[in-house]
User: Fold this.
Amino acid sequence: MNEQTKNESKPLFSISGLFSDCFAPGRRLRIHILLAIFAFAFALRLARSFQIERIEKDGVQLLMMAEDIAENGLDDGFAENPRLPPLHIFLVAAGMRAGIPPEVAGILISVLSGALLVFPVFFIAQNLFKTFLPAMISAIVVAVYPNLARVAAEVLRDPLFQLFSIVAIWMLIEGVKSHKLRFHLVAGICAALAAATRSEGVEILVAYCLYCACSLAVRAADDPPLRMRIRRTLFSVAVFVVGFAAVSAPLELAVSRTMSQWHAIDMRIVSIAEAFVKYPKSELDHKIK
Amino acid sequence: MSAVFEAMIRFGLRLAGSQFPVFIFPLLVFIVFRWRAMFSSVRENPAARLLLSYLLVVFVLRFVLYMSGYPYQGRYFHPITILTVFPIAGGLLLIGRYIEKFKRGNLLAWLVLAVVAASAGKVLNPPDPKKWLKDIPDAIRANAPADGRRTELISVVEDRRLPFYAKSGYHLLMPIFGDMFRDAEIFLADGASETGKKLKGKGASPLDLEGRKGGIKLIVRFDEPTKLRAIAFLWSLTPDKMKADVSFQTVEGGDFLKAELVSSNQEGVVFRQELTAKNIIIAIDVKSNSLWHLSTVRGHGFDSYQVFTQGYYNGMMKWLPEEDFKFGLQSVTQAADEWGGDNVFILFDATIPEVEKALEERRLRGKIMPVGEFTTHKGKPLSLYRGIAPDRRD
Assistant:
């Protein structure tokens, strides 16, 4: 939320004059506005959750697995669906151990995750637009977006996954801007947490590799020489992977002794992508004739 | 138009359809009026570059997943939805600035407020609730035996919310044809190949079936010779309007039986969508061994029902048939008798008169008693029955 610095790259677009009277807020006011948006997002999702009479179909499976784990331990808890990533189930089970009913724990996780999404979205928008106003509107839009708000009032893994994914992207943005490795480390950790929530979490790793490849291929005016950029990129990716492995490896080890077949890098996605790429085009053409 | 391109269009339409309409206009405004700035920012701004990389990866992988025939839900698009928030905010600002050219004042604030109100209204107005999902568990709990025995639900509907809210055990009622697919291998054959391409589950099926003209041949090979069941099953998969053009051939050879469904209609492409949808269901069933969908394409089968209970199969939790029970309605009454009687509930996908008539025809009337009739949100009838307590049986 700091003012635009000289070193920052060009803004996506800038709008001056709009709301200049009422929106030239100081740092404290900005924080208050952001907190108000978060409170609104939280209240909206909570209100929606009170309207739900029956949770989503997929949510029941999560709750049943969490109940099994909370009552009988890890051993057979994943038998219901061994490929299901464990983080959300663990959190619900932990909530149950703390005395919260499973359905309430599941909804609370979703509501809180969904509302927290306004923070990373705000900071990413500020990186894009360089001004407060569009960043604030981005936070408002994500707070009220009906599709997101409705899912964030259900017992589903999606809100938690979205939160970790977007925080990982935000951290990567801060990392590539400032070249500080600690951001890459946190991004790796968040990406691993996202992968432990939904299998698609590995997309962040792929996207970061794609970004690195593009950044090496395209050189901006003030970029350093290629050799330095390669070295910097390799370090960043290595730190990201260390952060990713620091969370995913112990988690994989913990569930490997159970019936879980979860892996941080989902083999189904790899095999589907492989099948898609390898699909014989001639065979397809033959069928279309 | 290639099958992939067609699928891309379908995917794009599905993606657009999953977005909240109020936000589509500012999104388009931003893309149309700021496309040049967007392109330049991708080069200059690492944040934009990283977001674009993420969007590309998410888009491509979601598309691959969509193409694979995996049952797709709108929430899979949400990572893309979150990424559209930034151009939507930019679009709202552009619209606000444009309006303020004509009229002074903080119109942007009103615009944002209107968007917030519309969105919040949408959030707080849930679609029609599935009342039957509440009513059926409530009926089970209200009719549960007073001695506190655990209730058991045998259901034609695979929805875990029913036993979850009824706090009962859960069994599925599916036609026996489903069971034979546990060990079946399914091949799709085309003109060039006798055995065709073996369906490897979800990954291959949509591409295999898309764009086929001049007949579809489905070969199902079973480990056991179950000719009649195979033909009946394939026939049940055939859309009604296609039945006139379909011929069956059975070929016995070696230790397996092969049943073929061949459409002689050269305009087979007309039926493609319908047949494709059903064939994808087969592939999914083979892969996951969750056999429910087979019964949805077959309709109810008072003579072919079998009771399934979850258990371990090849190290994984699967729906396994209760092999000691008979088939059809007898399997239901037998289960009700053996599992305690009045604590066993059965959910049929038929009206009470239909079930009563079927029970009457099979001389099973009085073995189970109706509790209530329900209608799903799609208008399909469901009827809930209960077993009879041992001391009240005839």
Chain A touches chain B through 85 residues (CB under 8 Å).
